[in-house]
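Re: folding output
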Amino acid sequence: MARVISSDRYTLSQLFFLVLLRVSIGWHMLYEGATKIINPDWSSFGYLMDSKGLFAGIFKCMATHQEILQVVDFMNIWGLFLIGLGLIAGLFTRLSVICGIVLLSLYFLSHPPLASIQYIFPQEGSYLLVNKTLIEIMALFVLLVFPTGQAAGLDRFIQKKRS
């Protein structure tokens, strides 16, 4: 378990950019979830069927079973939305970060950036092992070890109430 360091040990610019990183990732996830909420026809079916790599069979199996697909879609939509909301507000920040890491890791495992793989959906660039999803996962790991929710977020009020 990581030791929680008091936020008064950081400079104002360090805190500002850590919180900005948290809020930016939160906005990205919240917006992705919100666009899926307002689109009643959205489904992860195509994305899951386009899965490649070691775990492709698992992801494709999820897509081909309607009941499982409905659960996956619900969890994906509301997971994105609630993780984003938690990161923006600094509420249950640690839980939001961990859930974000898990969700993005599933995306990464579904569509690993390997040179030998071609996907139906076009990518914005050429990637080998490291892509935007992995970078966002690593950024969330950074946020996991810095208590930004306690420094600037609703977690601060929860912590004060517990004390």
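--- second protein (sequence, then structure) ---
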Amino acid sequence: MTVCEPMRKMCTVRTETLPVDDPLPLPISMTAPNGTQITRETIGDKTVENLQVKGSHEIVVTPQLGEKEPTVKELWYSPLLGLNVEVRRFMPRGGAQDIAMQSINRTEPDPRLFQVPETFGITRMVR
């Protein structure tokens, strides 16, 4: 992973091994210390942008905020990409938010996009 600070013209390169497996499963239900209740349920599989994705609902009730109705998130997760490709959020006060990846291209990007500029210094960190 490379993190650059353009104002300082400095980049830090970290060598890390990241897991490629599915994330650890979250508990089906839990209650946070502030009383927020979170429930998760599986809603099946579908195909998005030629990717197999797994669907789930995350239902959140926050009584401390006076909310009796839940906020519901519909998440469509791609194990191949390791991220949600669609997220839909429905809020108790009538709000909704949809986020979806489009035109997913799984080919390798041009390596020049990831090169550190020649005028930048580099610090390497090893873990």
